[in-house]
Design brief:
Blueprint lengths: L8 E2 L2 E2 H17 L5 H18 L8 H21 L9 H11 L2 H4 L12 H13 L18 H10 L7 H19 L3
Antiparallel strand pairs: 1-2
Helix pairs in contact: 1-2, 1-3, 2-3, 4-6
Length: 191
C-alpha cells in the first residue's frame, strides 16, 4: 500500500480508515454489478492508490472521502472517453452513464472493460453509446402557473361563516360540541 504500512499508518491515516475506504469503494462497484473478484479487487486498489497519492495534499479529508472522490473522477473520465460526451451533456453524464452501463449489460458481458483504458471492443463502445442515448428522457422546458389551493370542507365552512347570519363565535361552536359530547356520555353511561 505504501510507506508507513508497518506503523499502522498510510498517508497519515490509519489502516482502519483505509480499510473502511476499501469497503465503501468495493460496495459501490458491487452495486454496479461488478461481481468478478479479480476485476473488482484491481479496480478498488487502483482507486485507493490514487487516493493515497492525493492524501498528503488534503489532510482535512478522510480516506473514504478521498477514495470516493477519486472513484467518481475515474468513472467520469472513463465515461467521457467511451461516450464521447459533449460539454452540454456533461452535467447528466454521471447518472446517465451509470444507467447506460446497466442498459448495455456491461456487468454481464464486459466487466473487464470497466475503467480499463482504450481501445475497447467496438461492440462494447456501440452498446454503451446506444444505451447512453436512450438512458435519459428528452427534457422540455415547461411553465407552471399557480393554481388556487383546494381547501375542501374548510373552504366551505369559511364561506358560510362569511354570511352574516351564519357568523358564530368559535367559543359557541366549541361549547356546543362539548355539550353534545357530555350528553352522549351521560346517555351511554348509567349512574
Amino acid at each position: 500500500m505504501g510507506a508507513g504500512a508497518s506503523t499502522g499508518m498510510v498517508a497519515n491515516r490509519s489502516l482502519e480508515e483505509w480499510n473502511g475506504a476499501y469497503a465503501r469503494v468495493e460496495r459501490y462497484f458491487y452495486a454496479l454489478q461488478l461481481h468478478n473478484k479479480v476485476v473488482l479487487g484491481q479496480l478498488v486498489l487502483h482507486v485507493l492508490q490514487r487516493a493515497i497519492e492525493r492524501a498528503p495534499a488534503h489532510p482535512e479529508l478522510s480516506a473514504t472521502e478521498l477514495a470516493v472522490q477519486e472513484m467518481d473522477k475515474l468513472i467520469l473520465q472513463w465515461f467521457e472517453e467511451i461516450l464521447g460526451v459533449t460539454p452540454e451533456t456533461k452535467n447528466v453524464l454521471s447518472t446517465r452513464g451509470r444507467l447506460a452501463l446497466l442498459l448495455a449489460d456491461m456487468p454481464g458481458r464486459w466487466q473487464e472493460q470497466f475503467l480499463a483504458p482504450g481501445p475497447w471492443p467496438e461492440e462494447f463502445v456501440s452498446a454503451m453509446r446506444a444505451a447512453y442515448l436512450r438512458a435519459g428522457p428528452a427534457f422540455q422546458l415547461a411553465r407552471m402557473s399557480p393554481r388556487p389551493l383546494d381547501l375542501g370542507a374548510m373552504e366551505t365552512f369559511v364561506k358560510l361563516s362569511e354570511v352574516r347570519f351564519f357568523k358564530v363565535s368559535l367559543f359557541s361552536i366549541w361549547t356546543l360540541f362539548i355539550l353534545i359530547l357530555i350528553f352522549v356520555f351521560l346517555k351511554t353511561h348509567e349512574f
